Amino acid sequence: MGSRASTLLREEEIEEIKKETGFSHSQITRLYSRFTSLDKGENGTLSREDFQRIPELAINPLGDRIINAFFPDGEDQVNFRGFMRTLAHFRPVEDNEKNKNLSNTEPLNSRTNKLHFAFQLYDLDRDDKISRDELLQVLRMMVGVNISDEQLGSIADRTIQEADTNGDGCISFTEFIKVLEKVDVEQKMSIRFLH
Amino acid sequence: MPSRMGARAPAGFARSFLELGLLLLLVFVLLQGSVFPYGADASSQHAKDGCSSTHEGKPNRTKKVFPVLSFEYDHIKTPFEVSLWVLFASLMKLGFHLVPRLSSIVPESCLLIVVGLLVGGLSKLIGESELPKLDSGNFFLVLLPPIILDAGYFLPIRPFMENLGTILMFAVVGTLWNAFFIGSVLFAVCQIPAAGLTHLGLLSCLLFGSIISAVDPVAVLAVFEEIHINELLHILVFGESLLNDAVTVVLYHLFEEFSAFGTVTVLDGFLGVISFLIVAFGGVLVGAIYGILAAFTSRFTSHMRVIEPLFVFVYSYIAYLSAELFHLSGIMALIACGAVMRPYVEANISHKSHTTIKYFLKMWSSVSETLIFILLGVATVGGPHNWNWIFVTSTVFLCLVARVIGVIGLTFIINKFRIVKLTTKDQFIVAYGGLRGAIAFSLGFLLEVEDEEMRHIFLTAIITVIFFTVFVQGMTIKPLVELLAVKKKQEAKRSINEEIHIQFLDHLLTGIEDICGHYGHHHWKDKMNRFNRKYVKKCLIAGERSKEPQLIAFYHKLEFKQAIQLVESGAGGKLSSALPSTVSIQNIQPKKPPPAPEPRERVLPQLPKSREEEIRKILRSNLQRTRQRLRSYNRHTLVADPYEEGLNDLLKKQKMFELEKKIKEMNNYLSVPVATSDSPTLRRARLASDPQAYNVKPDPVAVPTIQVELASPQSPDSVNIMDEFRKDKEKDEDTGLTMKPPSGPSAPPRKQSEDAKDPQKLTRCLSDPGPSADEGEDDPFLP
């Protein structure tokens, strides 16, 4: 692993990742070593099985969905760039970043982008709406098997009713943002990555 | 005379509160001076002599005359005085809120201190030398625990845990910094010959510093409660004030021990650190043990609901006393006990007990707080003072400076580790909110130093600092908060959306942390939650409730509350029509196999409009005809309202109709007993739509009450419709909607025998949803 690791992560790559995601140099190298330790096949990409080997993820109710979120549409392998791009959503929002405007696009870890990431975990068919069924699926995963379908159904109905402002029976992204406006998303969706 | 004055007071009440207030004060002080002097010896004589105007009493001097009316004050002296003080405090509190503008400008604590000052002043004028002192025994054992328990029981666990690092930094390091800074600079000041304080050694100054450095939870609560600041700041300052107790206890004892000897070695310092760890963790451990005991006890109280609140209070108080016994931190024990027991106890107890606990805690803490502030005022006037300009002013100044420097310095360090940084505004509020209060005063009072003069100097300085912080800082913090546009508390309650999404995010973050191999906050929280669910809940929560996921519990609470609102606003007829628009409560049916002895619940179906009308008509006619006789209230039974029983029937009839329909469609219903051993919240939710399902214990004597429902020796409700139906089928009757005549015990007992087994089951009634500010109860444990 030694020689391959050093050739796989070049300085230019680190710089590019830094620009794209905002991680610092040491964070990138640290995450890279984690990436390689997960990559049992040693081919520079991670597959779904690599993720599933993480024991805690297996008991996480949302484990599968989270794993899916790393893989861009249709693909089965994710490289380090993709890995970092997904993780970048969870970087804490820094105060000075709010003022700086490096590029035209919003940084990956802005509040909207964080919420969009979470939204996409609900919305599997990518139609920009969380339908009742999608909500039910998530609820079922979180709640376990003991609760009856009807009960979950009424919870889902209640949830949609609270959030739905335009009456289409689904939760759109804007409604999703509105519902969570009181929640401190910047804190709840951030991980303190070690330096 | 006072009685006549009292009679005149109500008349003038509306016009001028001040008049009444002064009148009350005067009455009280006169009573104190003339009737209730302290110092037992000459009391009875004195009282008899002085009280001719207040009480009729024939002094019994001769043997011949039998005393028709006698006066013996000593017998009831202490309880009477205590009650009078409590009454006085409560009336004052009541009075403040009648003057609308006053309570918005001046915080209540200030007003209460002023009242205390007045009382003290008046009684000094009258020459009454003995007033109740804020003596440390009373304060620490009686007045302080209710406030701390109230704070601990309703502590918002999630924000507290999330900010625990910050809070601990402020509490421990901040208080240490304050103590040493103030102590050493004061010592330097004392060295100035002009002050005349050179006799104060370094250790005495450090002792003083340790007393005055701690932020006081009572004062913070009193002031912050009124300014509705955002949750983060509130929990920071409040958490700090609670947790610095351990530091204060250790420092106080350390310096008190050693100020006698005059030297402190390194070993002593080291022992001090160890002592701190023991005090802090020991306190928490003691509290946690008692909390678990209380939770475990509450598991078995389903048959004796009336004494449930008692367990909460008694276990907590014993935890406090046990901690104090070992010189551990009693406050931390109390907080730990309340916080640990709460999620389990709330899962086990009835709704009424929950309300009782809430109200009792608020009531006691409120009265305690009021008394503390009043007695502080009284003690100010009464206490022995030794005013030393330099000492006092430098103390006040140093307290402020130390606090500001401490907060700024610590925030600088803390912000390196926080995800959401503390802004300058936040820092200012945290620094400004560092109020001192009665704990400092009591600790000063407790001091046992040979130098009495020094003690008086200390006490004077402490009182001045308290006054300064409470009055100046307390009064100005509200306008400052407005001025600086600090974020206020979010008033809205948590919606089900937020609850779901927050849990979702928790799982998401835990997953991401696992992927990164990063054992952070979420990872440990998730582990603890899983442990809690797997082992702890099974032990401490009764019955099926232990398996109920937190989301479901939250949802049911929401439904319950909504149903209460519906009932309160609507009344019977609208009930069924209002329900379906929001939620289909009727579908609540967990997929669990039913254990037999549990009494069964009803399924509440929807009702078509025509049936509704029919029901309404019939009810109307029947309710007009009959009159209920209220059974006298007995501690062992909870009486049912006539109106509620009528409502009961409405709902029962609904079900009968609906099931009549269903029976024709689905035969297999009969073989399956209806929904079953539900969790208490499910039951509550169901009862929400069936609101007043009281379950009255069977009368020993068949009271011939005239009821709309069949009177049987057993409870008139909690009918199992399915069984009723089955019996109907057996008897081959089509009951439809026939009203059995109120025929007393001769009616065929259609009630189930199971009802007798569980008399108090359905006592979760919608009597009182509790005070509105109850966001705290929606927070799940370790959410």
TrEMBL record, chain A:
Its main location: membrane. Keywords: Calcium, Cell membrane, Cytoplasm, Lipoprotein, Membrane, Metal-binding, Myristate, Nucleus, Phosphoprotein, Protein transport, Repeat, Transport. Gene3D superfamilies: EF-hand. InterPro entries: Calcineurin_B_homologous, EF-hand-dom_pair, EF_Hand_1_Ca_BS, EF_hand_dom. One of its GO terms (biological process) is protein transport. GO terms for cellular component: cytoplasm; nucleus; plasma membrane. SMART domains: EFh (SM00054). PROSITE patterns: EF_HAND_1 (PS00018), EF_HAND_2 (PS50222). GO terms for molecular function: calcium ion binding. Residues 26-61, 110-145, 151-186 form the EF-hand domain. Belongs to the calcineurin regulatory subunit family. CHP subfamily. This is EF-hand domain-containing protein.
TrEMBL record, chain B:
The chain crosses the membrane at residues 111-127, 139-155, 167-194, 200-223, 235-255, 270-296, 326-345, 366-383, 389-415, 427-445, 457-481. Gene3D superfamilies: 6.10.140.1330, 6.10.250.1040, 6.10.250.2020. It comes from the Eukaryota. GO terms for biological process: regulation of pH. Residues 87-482 form the Cation/H+ exchanger transmembrane domain. Residues 578-685 form the Sodium/hydrogen exchanger regulatory region domain. It is a multi-pass membrane protein. Residues 710-783 are annotated as: Disordered. It catalyses: Li(+)(out) + H(+)(in) = Li(+)(in) + H(+)(out); Na(+)(in) + H(+)(out) = Na(+)(out) + H(+)(in); Li(+)(in) + Na(+)(out) = Li(+)(out) + Na(+)(in). It is found in: Basolateral cell membrane. Belongs to the monovalent cation:proton antiporter 1 (CPA1) transporter (TC 2.A.36) family. NCBIfam families: b_cpa1 (TIGR00840). This is Sodium/hydrogen exchanger.
